[in-house]
Amino acid sequence: MPSWVRLLLLTGFLLGLVANAQGEARVHVVVPGQTLGGIARRYDVSTAELARTNHMRPGDILPVGKRLVIPDRVSASTNPGAPAGVRARYSVVGGDTLGSIALRHRVSISSLARANGIRETDVLRVGQSLLIPPAENRRDDASAEATAAAASPGLQTLEVPGAGPVYYFEPVGRRRLGLAPVIMYLHGRGGDPARDCRRWAPIARSFGWLVCPGGAGYYAGGRTWNNDWPAGSLVVTKSLRALRDRYGRRVQLYGNTLIGFSEGAFVAMNVGVRAPRTFNRWLILGASDGYLGPGGPSLLAKGRSSLHRVVLLTGVHDSVVHETRRAGVWVEQSGVSLRVVTPATLAHEVALEREASLYRDALVWLAGG
Question: Under a CB-based contact definition with an 8 Å cutoff, are residues 365 and 97 in contact?
Answer without folding.
Answer: yes
